[in-house]
Amino acid sequence: MIWTLLGGMTLATVMTGAVLGAALGLTGFAILYFFSGGATNLGVQAVWNTFNSYTLTAIPLFILLGEILVASGLARNVYRAMSPLFARLPGGLLHTNIAVCTLFGAVSGSSMAVAAAVGSVAYPELTRRGYDRNSVVGSLAGGGTLGLLIPPSLSLLIYGAFTETSIGKLFLAGIVPGLIAAAGFMVWITIHSLRRPELAPRNLEPAVGLGQALKGLVEIWPLLALIGAVLGSLFAGLATPTESAGMGVAAAIILGFAVGDLTLAGIGRALMSTVTTFAVIAMVFMGAVILAQSISVLGLPQQLLGQMAELGLSPLMVLLAIIVIYILLGMVFDGLSMMIMTLPIVFPLLTGLGYDPVWLGVLITLLIEIGMLTPPVGMNLFVLVGMSNNQVTLGDAARAALPYWLVLLGVIALMTLVPALATGLPSLVKL
């Protein structure tokens, strides 16, 4: 009865037009009021304790870092520097899209920010050279997802703050799966381009020797400096996630003025976009915290674990069911909202079955990435369709992104078979 009421109340409040955070919060307060003797103060206290956390202040800073990168135009120089390394490979500059997205993912925790920053440079350049528009958009949509997995990751940061899991370990855990996903994207581009060479014409690319190409990499120093400021300080134990994010923002502003196109107006737009984005996240976060408190008070995760034991469901079967649910939810919710909404139940359920919290954070981030490529709410698809001035339709973009969707699913399968791909690095470092 409680599970039915929980689902029904959440659905009812969403259908009234209430935003997701309000729907989750109202449902949580209703459960506390009717099933816990009117103890709604527990929900208020949970919100205060969560938002009074120092770790949570890193979220708006990482959002701002991504927005400043987009406004500064630093992607242009980095893209130009890395292009000669891949120009003569099957797939040509489509590989550059993935490589530059991987680098930008190491300084921006937002998938959409990476897709927008790299796409603003890559799409006009590649279409001018005769590359297939759909293939360009597909590679950028897939590459953009690396912004959520390669640390620093906004989703891993929120996951860590919500579940009280080490942010540093979560960031380390995302490195190997992120690089595997990037390599998988490049393998697909190579295979597809060998089958259909007309999608990525290589004869238009100037012949550049390896030595000259490596010399050109000097131009990526601003991005390497940012990576050092953000990840170097964090992994060296010199800074907390909030402090490293702050140093990243300061470094991005300095480099944006020095070697980029950043202006005071650009900083103003970045600040406004950051406030808007964080307000949405904070609202959903607040509602989820209240709901999590009500669920905890009722002991629903423990009841669910008991019922699964009675049914004889193995941990793997439960995990597969959760993966399917996330894929379906990814069709109607944006990734971060979906994660925050489901964590109150999914986290205690799967950790109760023996799954490692750090490994689980990477798994959920991969599932969010899949949602970023899943229509009709695939946010990366919308960003790039808009960037193409609707020269590529949403349907074409979704079809072009499907192979990258499958690669991410393959990384999930590989990580499930070999959990050490996510847990290996964190186990070697004390954070």
From TrEMBL:
<keyword id="KW-0472">Membrane</keyword>
<dbReference type="InterPro" id="IPR004681">
    <property type="entry name" value="TRAP_DctM"/>
</dbReference>
<comment type="subunit">
    <text>The complex comprises the extracytoplasmic solute receptor protein and the two transmembrane proteins.</text>
</comment>
<keyword id="KW-0812">Transmembrane</keyword>
<feature type="transmembrane region" description="Helical">
    <location>
        <begin position="404"/>
        <end position="429"/>
    </location>
</feature>
<protein>
    <recommendedName>
        <fullName>TRAP transporter large permease protein</fullName>
    </recommendedName>
</protein>
<feature type="transmembrane region" description="Helical">
    <location>
        <begin position="12"/>
        <end position="35"/>
    </location>
</feature>
<feature type="transmembrane region" description="Helical">
    <location>
        <begin position="362"/>
        <end position="384"/>
    </location>
</feature>
<feature type="transmembrane region" description="Helical">
    <location>
        <begin position="135"/>
        <end position="158"/>
    </location>
</feature>
<keyword id="KW-0997">Cell inner membrane</keyword>
<feature type="transmembrane region" description="Helical">
    <location>
        <begin position="170"/>
        <end position="191"/>
    </location>
</feature>
<feature type="transmembrane region" description="Helical">
    <location>
        <begin position="96"/>
        <end position="123"/>
    </location>
</feature>
<keyword id="KW-1003">Cell membrane</keyword>
<comment type="function">
    <text>Part of the tripartite ATP-independent periplasmic (TRAP) transport system.</text>
</comment>
<dbReference type="Pfam" id="PF06808">
    <property type="entry name" value="DctM"/>
</dbReference>
<keyword id="KW-0813">Transport</keyword>
<feature type="domain" description="TRAP C4-dicarboxylate transport system permease DctM subunit">
    <location>
        <begin position="9"/>
        <end position="421"/>
    </location>
</feature>
<keyword id="KW-1133">Transmembrane helix</keyword>
<dbReference type="InterPro" id="IPR010656">
    <property type="entry name" value="DctM"/>
</dbReference>
<feature type="transmembrane region" description="Helical">
    <location>
        <begin position="311"/>
        <end position="329"/>
    </location>
</feature>
<feature type="transmembrane region" description="Helical">
    <location>
        <begin position="278"/>
        <end position="299"/>
    </location>
</feature>
<feature type="transmembrane region" description="Helical">
    <location>
        <begin position="220"/>
        <end position="239"/>
    </location>
</feature>
<comment type="similarity">
    <text>Belongs to the TRAP transporter large permease family.</text>
</comment>
<feature type="transmembrane region" description="Helical">
    <location>
        <begin position="251"/>
        <end position="272"/>
    </location>
</feature>
<feature type="transmembrane region" description="Helical">
    <location>
        <begin position="55"/>
        <end position="75"/>
    </location>
</feature>
